[in-house]
Design goal:
Number of domains: 3
Strand content: 5-15%
Strand order of the largest sheet: 3-2-1-4-5-6-7
Oligomer: single chain
Protein name: 6-phosphogluconate dehydrogenase, decarboxylating
Structural class: alpha/beta
Number of helices: 20
Active site: 187, 194
Catalytic activity: 6-phospho-D-gluconate + NADP(+) = D-ribulose 5-phosphate + CO2 + NADPH
CATH superfamily of the largest domain: N-(1-d-carboxylethyl)-l-norvaline Dehydrogenase, domain 2
CATH class of the largest domain: Mainly Alpha
Number of strands: 11
Binding site for substrate: 107, 133-135, 190-191, 195, 265, 292, 449, 455
Function: Catalyzes the oxidative decarboxylation of 6-phosphogluconate to ribulose 5-phosphate and CO(2), with concomitant reduction of NADP to NADPH.
Distance between the termini: 63 Å
Bound molecules: NADP nicotinamide-adenine-dinucleotide phosphate
Shape: globular
CATH architecture of the largest domain: Orthogonal Bundle
C-alpha cells in the first residue's frame, strides 16, 4: 500500500486532448478534486505544469491512482478505443474493488461495451460506457453525455456528470440512456447523424457553388442567414466560418486549398453496419459514409474525371434555387434524424434498453456536434406520442416536409441535370417517397424470389403463404412460409 491520501472524488485516465480537457472541466466544478493518470507520465507532468489552477492530484502508477481516490472510486477512461481501453480496464480492475465505478468515455463500439460491462460486473465493480460528444472544446466547456451501464453506477456518477455537461435551456445535457452498451449505441447513432448532417451541408454548398457560381464567401453569408431560421445549428454556424476563411498563404478561400478527400474514424461505418444487421434503412447516413469513401479514391477519380456529363448548369433563377436548396437541406435533415431514431428504437428493442427518445433529443441540444434548434421539435414529438412509429409523420415534421417537398424535388432534378452529385439529398427524397408509396415494387421482388428460389409470397386478398409452380403448369399452391 502506498501512503497516498485518498483526496480525489474522481479520476481521469488518459490525458490526450479529450482526457486532459475533461479533467480540467471536472476540476473547474465546485467540490471536485481530480486525480489524473496517463500511461506515459510525461503527459501527466505536462498537464500539471500547464494547469496548476486545476489542483490535480498527480499519480504515476495505477496503484497510486487508485489510492488517491475516495471510495467508492470513480474513474473516467479517455484512451484510444479498442485494445488500449481493454488494457486500462484490466489494470483498473486489479486495483479497484466492488462498488467502485469505471467509466469508459472513449468512442467504444457498443458491443465491446456490452462485453466489458458483463465481465467487469462479475468483479462487483460497476462499468459505465459513456458516449461523449463535443470534441475537445465540448470536453473542456461542457459536452453532451450519453452514459449507459447499471442504475447503481449512475447513482454515484450522475451527479458528477450533471455538473460538467453542457446546459441547454437550463437542463444538463446528460441522461442515463439505458443499461450496458446503450450509451455507446446512442453515441454511435449520434455520430452517424453527424455524418449525414455534414454531407447534406456539403451538398448544399456544392449545389449553390456549382449551380449559381456563388463564391465561398457569398455562400458563407447564405449559411449565416440560414442559421437564423429553422436550420439553426452548430454545424451550419461553423460551415459559414469555414467558408469565410481565407488562406493566408495564397489569398484563396481556405476551402479551395483543402484536399477534397474526407477522412473518417469509423463511427459512421459502425452505424451503417449496425443498421444493416438490424434491418433499418439509414440511407442518408450510408450515403454520407460512402460519399467520404468515394472522395478518398484519388486513383479512381483520376481515371474517371473525363467521363461525359452535362455541358451546363440547369439552374436559371439563382435566388429561387438557393431557397429550394435550403428547403431540400431541411427536409433531408429530417429524414436523417428520423432514420437515426428508427435505429435507436430498433437497437433498444434488440438489446432490451428502455431508451427515452425525447430525452436523447434533449441531451443533443447542447455540447454536441449535431446540436440544433430543431431537436426541441423531436423532443416535443416524442412527448406528444412516446411510441411514435416514424418521426417524419409527427405534425411539425409533416408540415415542414409539406412545405419543402416541391423545392426538394426541384433541387434533386437540377442536381441530376447539372451533373452535380447530391447522393444524400436524392436518397433522402427516395426514402421519403418510398415510405409514402401506396404500393412498392417489393411485390415484384417477391415474385422474382418465388420464381428462382421458391421463397413464397403473401397475397393482398387472402391469408396464407403461396408459391407459383413456375417450372410446372404455373398454377398457385399454398406453401410453408419461407420468407
Ligand atoms: N477527439 C475527439 O474529438 C473525440 C470526441 C469524442 C470522443 N473521443 C474519444 O475519446 C478517447 C480519447 O481521445 P483522444 O483524441 O483524447 O486520445 P487518443 O489519441 O484517442 O488516445 C490517446 C490516449 O490513449 C492512451 N493510450 C493509448 N494506448 C494505450 C494503452 N495501450 N494503454 C494505456 N493508454 C493508452 C495514450 O496514452 P500515452 O500518452 O501513454 O500514449 C493517450 O492518453 C478516444 O476513445 C476517442 O475516440 C474523441
Amino acid at each position: 500500500m502506498s501512503e497516498i491520501e485518498p483526496s480525489a472524488n474522481i479520476g481521469v485516465v488518459g490525458l490526450a486532448v479529450m482526457g486532459s480537457n475533461l479533467a480540467r472541466n471536472l476540476a473547474s466544478r465546485e467540490g471536485n478534486t481530480v486525480a489524473v493518470y496517463n500511461r506515459t507520465t510525461a503527459k501527466t507532468d505536462a498537464l500539471l505544469e500547464a494547469h496548476p489552477e486545476a489542483g490535480f492530484v498527480h499519480t504515476a502508477t495505477v496503484q497510486e491512482f487508485a489510492d488517491s481516490l475516495q471510495k467508492p472510486r470513480t474513474a473516467i477512461i479517455m484512451v484510444k478505443a479498442g485494445r488500449p481501453t481493454d488494457a486500462v480496464i484490466d489494470e483498473l480492475c486489479e486495483v479497484f474493488e466492488a462498488g467502485d465505478v469505471i467509466v469508459d468515455g472513449g468512442n467504444s463500439l457498443f458491443t465491446d461495451t456490452i462485453r466489458r460491462e458483463k465481465a467487469v460486473r462479475e468483479t462487483g465493480i460497476n462499468f459505465v460506457g459513456c458516449g461523449i460528444s463535443g470534441g475537445e472544446e465540448g470536453a473542456l466547456k461542457g459536452p453532451s453525455l450519453m452514459p449507459g451501464g447499471s442504475v447503481e453506477g449512475y447513482k454515484t456518477l450522475g451527479p458528477i456528470l450533471s455538473t460538467i455537461a453542457a446546459v441547454a435551456e437550463g437542463e444538463p445535457c446528460v441522461t442515463h440512456v439505458g443499461t450496458d452498451g446503450a450509451g455507446h449505441f446512442v453515441k454511435m447513432v449520434h455520430n452517424g447523424i453527424e455524418y449525414a448532417d455534414m454531407q447534406l451541408i456539403g451538398e448544399a454548398y456544392d449545389l449553390i457553388r456549382q449551380g449559381t457560381g456563388a463564391s465561398p464567401a457569398q455562400i458563407a453569408d447564405i449559411f449565416g442567414k440560414w442559421n437564423d431560421g429553422e436550420l439553426n445549428s452548430y454545424l451550419i454556424e461553423i460551415t459559414a466560418e469555414v467558408l469565410r476563411q481565407t488562406d493566408a498563404e495564397t489569398g484563396k478561400a481556405l476551402v479551395d486549398v483543402i484536399v477534397d478527400q474526407a477522412g473518417a474514424k469509423g463511427t459512421g461505418a459502425w452505424t451503417v453496419q449496425t443498421a444493416l444487421d438490424l434491418g433499418i434503412p439509414v440511407s442518408g447516413i450510408a450515403e454520407a459514409v460512402f460519399a467520404r469513401s468515394l472522395s478518398s479514391k484519388p486513383k479512381q477519380r483520376a481515371v474517371t474525371g473525363d467521363l461525359p456529363g452535362p455541358s451546363a448548369s440547369a439552374v436559371d433563377d439563382a435566388e429561387a434555387f438557393i431557397e429550394d436548396v435550403r428547403l431540400a437541406l431541411f427536409a433531408s435533415k429530417i429524414v436523417a434524424y428520423s432514420q437515426g431514431f428508427d435505429l435507436i428504437v430498433q437497437g433498444a428493442e434488440e438489446y432490451d434498453w428502455d431508451i427515452k427518445k425525447g430525452d436523447i433529443a434533449a441531451i443533443w441540444r447542447g455540447g454536441c456536434i449535431i446540436r440544433a434548434q430543431f431537436l426541441n421539435r423531436i423532443t416535443d414529438a416524442y412527448a406528444d406520442e412516446p411510441d411514435l412509429v416514424a418521426l417524419l409523420s409527427a405534425p411539425y415534421f409533416r408540415e415542414a416536409l409539406t412545405a419543402a417537398q416541391d423545392g426538394w424535388r426541384r433541387v434533386v432534378v437540377a442536381a441530376a441535370q447539372s451533373g452535380i452529385p447530391a447522393p444524400a439529398f436524392s436518397s433522402s427524397l427516395a426514402y421519403y417517397d418510398g415510405l409514402r408509396a401506396e404500393r412498392l415494387p417489393a411485390a415484384l421482388v417477391q415474385g422474382q424470389r418465388d420464381f428462382f428460389g421458391a421463397h413464397t409470397y403473401k397475397r393482398t386478398d387472402k391469408e396464407g403463404t403461396f408459391h407459383t409452380l413456375w417450372s410446372g403448369d404455373r398454377s398457385e399452391v399454398t406453401a410453408e412460409d419461407t420468407h
